[in-house]
Amino acid sequence: MSNVCIKNINHEEVVSLAGQVEIMAGQVVSKTLAQNSAVSITLFAFAKGEEISSHDSNGDAMVTVLEGTGRFTVDGKDYLLHAGETLIMPAKKPHAVYAQETFKMMLVVVFPQ
């Protein structure tokens, strides 16, 4: 059992989160930074036109757009987020993500304990 809680990113080094994932044509690229029963932290890079279809989660999901613009649909309502903006998608509510242009985001999901 490792004592490293945050992985796949350099420790004690100033980094750009957006620089940790690359846009790849026709893909949604993800990099998991932390995953356990309490929290999940993942970086995503979306090519234009890519999406994550509607689904729900047992935990509250907080997205922060790092670069570009993404469209988030939560319980049927659309939200357009730009770099630096954050949205909370409540647990158990269906949500989806669509890249109307290339964009990158960080997703933090906090699960009930």
Automatic annotation (TrEMBL):
Pfam families: Cupin_2
Residues of the Cupin type-2 domain: 43-111
Entry's transmembrane regions: none
Gene3D superfamilies cross-referenced by the UniProt entry: Jelly Rolls
Protein's UniProt name: Cupin domain-containing protein
Native source organism of the sequence: Aminipila butyrica
